[in-house]
TrEMBL record:
Domain PurM-like N-terminal: 37-148
Domain of life: Bacteria
Segments crossing the lipid bilayer: none
Similarity annotation: Belongs to the HypE family.
Pfam families (UniProt xref): AIRS, AIRS_C
GO BP annotations listed: protein maturation
Residues covered by the PurM-like C-terminal domain: 161-311
Protein name per the record: Hydrogenase expression/formation protein HypE
Length: 334
C-alpha cells in the first residue's frame, strides 16, 4: 500500500480490498468480520442497548489516547450506561486523501487494542476516502450493541429525592488534555485524557446493585451539564458540594490559568452514579476496588427543592445555581 491514503482506497475496487484485508481485517480479526458481508449476524438474547456516536476530535493523537481508542471507549461507555454489557461495534471511517498511512495504522491498532480490552468485537464497517480539504484528516463513526443485564435500566428520569450522587473519579482531565495539546501548552504537572472503557466496572456495579437509578458519563458539557440533564429529566433538584468535588491540582491550576471551569470540561473515562443513599457506601466500595474508580466519591444528593435545577454549595456554605454549558467552551473535544 501507499505511504499515504489515496482516493482509490475508497473506490470499492482492488485498492479498497487491499486496505480492508491488510489493515482492518488484520487488526479486528474475528469470524463474523472475516465473512466480509455487507451486514453482520449477531448472537443476542433479550433486550438490547444500542448507541451511535461520531468522533472528530482535534488533535487526533493526544496525551492518554487518540481518536481510535476514544471511538471505542466513547461508544462502549454509552452502551454500558444503560446497564448493558457491550458486545459488538460497527465502525465507519471517513478519511481525508493524503492522511499518512502510518497514522491510519496507528489509529486502527489503537482501536483494536481498546476493543480487545473492552471485550467487544468489531463486526462490520465501512471506509470512505474524500478529497483533500473535504474533512480534517479522519472522522470515525461507531455504533455499539449490548445486552441489557439489569431491569429496569438506569435512566435519568429515575433520579429520586434522597438519592446519593456519586462520581467515579476526577473531573475535567480529558478536556484539558485536548486543549493543552491543541494549543501547545504545558503545565507543571502533566495532564492526560482519562479515556477508558468503563463497561467492566459498570457490570460489576449493577450486578451487585441492580437498584442503581441513573448512570451517565459526563462527556461534552462536563459534569455540570450532565447533572442539569438529569435534573430536567427527573424533575428533581440536585445539590452538589463544591468542597468534595474530585479535581486534580493540575486541572484546577490549568483551568484557572485559562479561565475555564473544570465542571464544564469533558470526561471520557468517568461516570455519574445515582442510587438510594443507603447503598452509597457499598457502591463506593465496588467502584474503588477497580483502578478506574479508585477516586470515587459522593458529591451531592438529589432533592425535592429547586426542581430541574442544580445547586452548588460552596465551602463557606453559600449556594449558587450551576447552570448548563452556554456556547461551545471547547469544540471538537470528541
Amino acid at each position: 500500500m501507499s505511504d499515504k491514503v489515496l482516493l482509490d482506497y475508497g473506490s470499492g475496487g482492488r485498492a479498497s480490498q487491499r486496505l480492508v484485508s491488510e489493515l482492518f481485517l488484520a487488526a479486528f480479526d474475528n469470524e463474523e468480520l472475516s465473512r466480509l458481508n455487507d451486514a453482520a449476524v449477531l448472537d443476542l438474547s433479550g433486550p438490547v442497548a444500542v448507541s451511535t456516536d461520531s468522533f472528530t476530535v482535534d488533535p487526533i493523537f493526544f496525551p492518554g489516547g487518540d481518536i481510535g481508542s476514544l471511538a471505542v471507549h466513547g461508544t462502549v461507555n454509552d452502551v454500558a450506561m444503560l446497564g448493558a454489557t457491550p458486545r459488538y461495534l460497527t465502525c465507519g471511517f471517513i478519511i481525508e486523501e493524503g492522511l499518512p498511512m502510518e497514522d491510519l495504522r496507528r489509529i486502527v491498532a489503537s482501536m483494536a487494542k481498546a476493543a480487545r480490552e473492552a471485550g467487544v468485537l468489531v463486526v462490520t464497517g465501512d471506509t470512505k476516502v474524500v478529497p483533500k480539504g473535504a474533512c480534517d484528516r479522519i472522522f470515525i463513526n461507531t455504533t455499539g450493541i449490548g445486552e441489557i443485564i439489569v431491569q429496569p435500566t438506569p435512566s435519568a428520569e429515575r433520579a429520586a429525592p434522597g438519592d446519593a450522587v456519586l462520581v467515579s473519579g476526577n473531573m475535567g482531565d480529558h478536556g484539558l488534555a485536548i486543549l493543552s495539546k491543541r494549543q501547545g501548552l504545558s503545565f507543571e504537572a502533566p495532564v492526560e485524557s482519562d479515556s477508558a472503557a468503563l463497561n467492566h466496572l459498570i457490570v460489576s456495579l449493577v450486578q451487585s446493585l441492580p437498584q442503581v437509578h441513573v448512570l451517565r458519563d459526563p462527556t461534552r458539557g462536563g459534569l455540570a451539564t450532565t447533572l442539569n440533564e438529569i435534573a430536567a429529566s427527573s424533575g428533581t433538584g440536585i445539590l452538589v458540594r463544591e468542597s468534595v468535588l474530585p479535581i486534580t491540582d493540575a486541572v484546577r491550576s490549568g483551568c484557572s490559568f485559562l479561565g475555564l471551569d473544570p465542571l464544564y470540561l469533558a470526561n471520557e473515562g468517568k461516570f455519574i452514579c445515582i442510587l438510594p443513599q443507603e447503598l452509597a457506601e457499598k457502591a463506593l466500595r465496588i467502584m474503588r476496588a477497580d483502578p478506574l474508580g479508585r477516586d470515587a466519591c459522593q458529591i451531592g444528593v438529589v432533592t425535592e427543592e429547586n426542581p430541574k435545577k442544580v445547586i452548588l454549595e460552596t465551602p463557606i456554605g453559600g449556594k449558587r445555581l450551576l447552570g448548563m454549558l452556554e456556547g461551545e467552551q471547547l469544540p471538537r473535544i470528541c
